[in-house]
Write a structure and sequence with these properties.
Elements: E1 6-11, E2 16-23, E3 26-34, H1 36-39, H2 47-69, E4 78-84, H3 88-105, E5 109-113, H4 114-126, E6 132-137, E7 142-149, E8 152-158, H5 164-175, H6 181-189, H7 214-231, H8 236-266, E9 274-278, H9 285-297, E10 301-303, H10 307-310, H11 315-326
Parallel strand pairs: 1-4, 4-5, 6-9, 9-10
Antiparallel strand pairs: 1-2, 2-3, 6-7, 7-8
The structure holds 5'-O-[(R)-(carboxyoxy)(hydroxy)phosphoryl]adenosine and zinc ion.
Zinc ion binds near residues 114, 118, 138, 312 and 360.
């Protein structure tokens, strides 16, 4: 039996600085330093602040990940790093750190696509076999991918404007609920009536798997402004009802579009039909429950990795790097940082993939 590869992973493409050590399918350590507090005053991620914070934290993060795994650099087989897509200053911090470590130790350097990291997570957590259908749904991305190999993905649909996480965050802002918006809208929705406001389900009538969420956000804005004009402000019940209505609309769109994506995937007659999700929005119980029911109905396994591996982390980068390395995909010191790096080069470019930032 060949010894499983042990890789250090480094991730710095948006607002999380992360390092991890993964051996085969085992996460030996995973350290994540979030930057939420640094960007809180600005209503979004500020690229310059993010890049500086990554540069300050990254060495420390790597040391901590090695210490937590009880390893030193000499125990590793390679160094994997997110080389894109993402905020370029942040991606550069990680790539420079990985190049320095590779040059100093002679260890192979492996540049990883951040989206591939998310998309391969079900293989790390559940040893899922190819091909499987994946929904990446986060603050910056929303796309359906059929994963055929570590470097071969078919994108069969996605958002044409905002990502759902971004819409949750904006809805929270409009309703005066705290950030990040997803958890606070979900909490408020628990005591709300999803039917009080009539909200749109954009593109639901269209056959393909593309989605749109910006009209929904505008509908929330109008509904809020209507109430404010009438009664001078929002009551807690208004916040709850608008949150419930918004969450129900997003859930309906995601479930219906997943039904169509699943039909396309199942038409390829996969040996073990599997559907998996990743990204912060995958934490939402209403969405998870809907997808669980849909998969049961369509005879498909449903994989929802633990949230710490669904959101940005470096264990997924180390794992994706190990798959790439095992297939002979080693980079050299000319590896460059890429702000854009679609997983499926053959698919038509999307009109938009979330305005919050190039993250997933
Ligand atoms: O994957 P992630 O941690 O970061 C990136 O976007 O890369 O996802 C963060 C997004 C935020 O927009 C947040 O509001 C959303 O995921 N989110 C949720 C929930 N928890 C986090 N959205 C809906 N329901 C939740 N429970
Ligand atoms: Zn991500």
């Amino acid at each position: 039996m060949t010894k499983p590869l042990t890789l250090l992973g480094i991730e710095s493409s948006c607002d999380d600085t992360a390092a991890a050590v993964v051996q085969g399918g085992k996460v030996l350590s995973s350290v994540v330093y979030g930057q939420t507090a640094l960007h809180a005053a600005f209503g979004g991620v500020v690229p310059e602040i993010a890049a500086r914070a990554h540069a300050e934290k990254i060495d420390h993060c790597v040391e901590e990940a090695l210490a937590d795994a009880g390893m030193s650099l000499s125990d590793l087989d390679g160094i994997a790093v997110t080389a894109g897509p993402g905020l370029i200053g942040g991606v550069l911090s990680g790539v420079m750190c990985a190049k320095g470590l590779s040059a100093a130790t002679g260890l192979p350097l492996i540049g990883v696509n951040h989206l591939a990291g998310h998309a391969l997570t079900p293989r790390l957590t559940d040893n899922v076999s190819y091909p499987y259908l994946m929904l990446l749904v986060s603050g910056g991305h929303c796309q359906f991918l059929i994963a055929h190999a570590h470097d071969r993905f078919d994108r069969i649909g996605g958002t044409i404007d905002d990502a759902p996480g971004e819409a949750f965050d904006k809805t929270a802002r409009l309703l005066g609920l705290p950030q990040p918006g997803g958890p606070s809208v979900e909490k408020a929705a628990q005591s709300g009536d999803p039917k009080r406001f009539k909200l749109p389900r954009p593109l639901l009538g269209q056959e393909e798997c593309d989605m749109s969420f910006s009209g929904l956000k505008t509908a929330i804005l109008r509904a809020r402004d209507g109430i404010v004009a009438e009664q001078g402000g929002l009551t807690t019940q208004d916040q709850a009802d608008l949150s419930a209505g918004f969450q129900a609309a997003v859930t309906d769109v995601l479930i219906e579009k997943t039904r169509r994506a699943l039909a396309l995937y199942l038409a390829q007659a996969p040996a073990t039909p599997t559907f998996a999700i990743a990204g912060g929005v995958a934490a939402n119980s209403s969405i998870r429950d809907g997808l669980t029911r849909l998969c049961a109905e369509m005879g498909t396994d449903f994989i929802a990795p633990p949230l710490r591996l669904c959101t940005d982390n470096a264990a997924m980068i180390a794992y994706a790097g190990a798959e790439k390395m095992a297939a002979g995909g080693i980079d050299d010191l000319t590896l460059s940082a890429r702000p854009r790096w679609p997983l499926d080069d053959r698919a038509a470019p999307m009109l938009g993939s979330g305005k919050k930032g190039a993250k997933a």
